[in-house]
Every structure is written in structure tokens, then in C-alpha cells.
């Protein structure tokens, strides 16, 4: 396994960082995009036959694959009438020069948690319909694999997660002769999801007073601050700041940009998933 090295171990040359910061301060970017524009996005679903649901997302050169496996288990004590979602993230050793062999570190864990939080609080998945009875529920294992890191892993992973869950087919639950529950993988139904409630994460960075969306890796390593805002329909369901700070005025600008970007990303999802 591999993980993303903490920000302290990720670096960029002083000259390169200065160039990037000067460009953004003047309203320009390395790849020629406007400050508020995403890179090209491609989504493919059902990319593996061994998962119950899967998707691959290309966000520029950032590439993430999501896979879903369905199992049976016990509900959480505080949600006895809901299914269980478990999200994990892994960065493959070749995905980035900053990846390290070993267990997931705090940054990879944070990636999984940000995606999990948006899914859990958006209403995209109807977890109550994943309950079988008071003692048994569906357990949804969602694994995120970063194949190439060119920045903005959160948004790419979020899109991959939504697409993989949307493509998931649940095995039917039956009882065997002993009365125990088991999965019948020959009979399936679609994952209970509502695409109109899909969580859309928008990651934004700040350099001086300029705010950008969808930073590439070199831009990420040059940022003063970074924040991810996840929106479902018209509601903000989570905000996660990773580095730096935003003034009240800058936060308002970031929120305005996130709503604008949410509309673009939602159209991308509808293009590939409907």
C-alpha cells in the first residue's frame, strides 16, 4: 500500500513556486485556465467486473478509481435502522512522487473522511432502505484508489464515489435452511440513490487574495490556504479546511465560487450517469 506524504514532505522549488504565485496573483494559471475553471472531466462506470459497482474519473491528469463491495453486518448502535457505509482511500506507489509505501497516513485518511462526510450527510444514498431487520443490514464498502495525483484528489474521488455508488447493484438477501442471511448475487437490485441529492465537492485554494478552483498539484504546493465545500442540492453539507485561513469576505467568495462550480460538476454527473 501507499499513501500521500503529509504536506510538510511535499515541496516545490522556490523559483517555481514564485512563478505560480505571480501568475495567479495576476489572474493567470500555468495551464491557461481562468481561476474559476475546472479541468476536463471524464467519468466511466462499471470499469471492473469483480466489484458490485465501480467508476473511474479523470480530472485533467488526476485519475481515481472507486470500487464498491457489498456485504452483510450489524448496524451501528446509534442507527439501528440504517445500512453501514465504510470509505477507505489508498494512493498507489506510482501515483505521485510524494507517495510512500506503507499504511495510509493522515492525509489519505482525511481524503476518505471528506468523501464519507459528503455522502453521509447529503441524502444521496437512502441508508434506511439498506436495513434488513434490527440485527442485520447491508454494509457498503467503498474503496478509492488514486492512480495518478496531479492535484485535487478530493473532487476527483468524490465524483468517482458518487458514480460508483450510482452504478452499484445490490445482491438480494435470502435466508438459508438454517435461517441465516446470505447474499444471492444472481439476483440484484439498484442501489437506492437519488442523483438530485448527490454531494458535489468543490476544492478551492487561495494565493494572496486570489481564490482558484481545482488546483493542480504544483498549485496545491504553492497555496496559502485550501478549503473543500460539499454541496447537496442547495445546501452545504460539509466544509473542510486543510491549510491556512480565510477571512470572512474570502469565505463568502469561496462559497459563491463553490455554488457556481457545483452547477458545472452536476451537469458532468448528469451527462455520464443518466
From TrEMBL:
GO terms for cellular component: cytoplasmic exosome (RNase complex). Keywords: Cytoplasm, Exonuclease, Exosome, Hydrolase, Nuclease. InterPro entries: ExoRNase_PH_dom1, ExoRNase_PH_dom2, ExoRNase_PH_dom2_sf, Exosome_comp_Rrp42_subfam, PNPase/RNase_PH_dom_sf, Ribosomal_Su5_D2-typ_SF, Rrp42_archaea. It is found in: Cytoplasm. The keyword Hydrolase applies. The keyword Ubl conjugation does not apply. Residues 37-171, 198-260 form the Exoribonuclease phosphorolytic domain. Non-catalytic component of the exosome, which is a complex involved in RNA degradation. Contributes to the structuring of the Rrp41 active site. Belongs to the RNase PH family. Rrp42 subfamily. This is Exosome complex component Rrp42. It comes from Thermoproteus tenax (strain ATCC 35583 / DSM 2078 / JCM 9277 / NBRC 100435 / Kra 1). The lineage of its organism: Archaea, Thermoproteota, Thermoprotei, Thermoproteales, Thermoproteaceae. The gene is rrp42.
Amino acid at each position: 500500500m501507499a499513501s500521500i506524504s503529509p504536506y510538510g514532505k511535499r515541496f516545490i522549488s522556490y523559483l517555481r513556486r514564485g512563478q505560480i504565485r505571480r501568475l495567479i496573483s495576476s489572474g493567470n494559471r500555468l495551464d491557461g485556465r481562468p481561476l474559476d475553471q475546472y479541468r476536463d472531466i471524464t467519468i466511466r462506470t462499471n470499469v471492473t467486473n469483480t466489484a458490485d459497482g465501480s467508476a473511474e474519473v479523470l480530472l485533467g491528469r488526476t485519475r481515481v478509481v472507486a470500487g464498491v463491495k457489498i456485504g452483510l453486518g450489524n448496524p451501528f448502535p446509534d442507527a439501528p435502522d440504517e445500512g453501514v457505509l465504510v470509505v477507505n482511500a489508498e494512493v498507489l506507489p506510482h501515483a505521485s512522487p510524494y507517495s510512500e509505501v506503507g499504511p495510509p497516513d493522515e492525509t489519505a485518511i482525511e481524503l476518505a473522511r471528506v468523501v464519507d462526510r459528503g455522502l453521509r450527510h447529503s441524502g444521496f444514498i437512502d441508508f434506511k432502505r439498506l436495513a434488513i431487520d434490527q440485527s442485520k443490514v447491508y454494509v457498503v464498502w467503498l474503496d478509492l484508489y488514486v492512480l495518478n495525483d496531479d492535484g485535487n484528489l478530493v473532487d476527483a474521488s468524490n465524483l468517482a464515489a458518487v458514480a460508483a455508488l450510482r452504478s452499484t447493484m445490490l445482491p438480494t438477501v435470502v435466508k438459508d435452511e438454517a435461517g441465516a442471511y446470505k447474499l444471492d448475487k444472481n439476483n440484484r437490485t439498484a442501489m437506492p440513490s437519488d442523483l438530485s441529492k448527490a454531494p458535489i465537492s468543490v476544492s478551492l485554494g487561495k494565493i494572496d487574495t486570489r481564490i482558484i478552483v481545482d488546483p493542480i498539484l504544483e498549485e496545491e504546493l504553492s497555496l496559502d490556504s485550501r478549503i473543500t465545500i460539499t454541496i447537496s442540492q442547495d445546501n452545504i453539507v460539509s466544509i473542510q479546511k486543510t491549510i491556512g485561513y480565510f477571512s470572512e469576505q474570502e469565505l463568502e467568495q469561496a462559497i459563491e465560487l463553490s455554488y457556481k462550480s457545483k452547477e458545472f460538476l452536476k451537469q458532468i454527473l448528469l451527462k455520464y450517469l443518466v
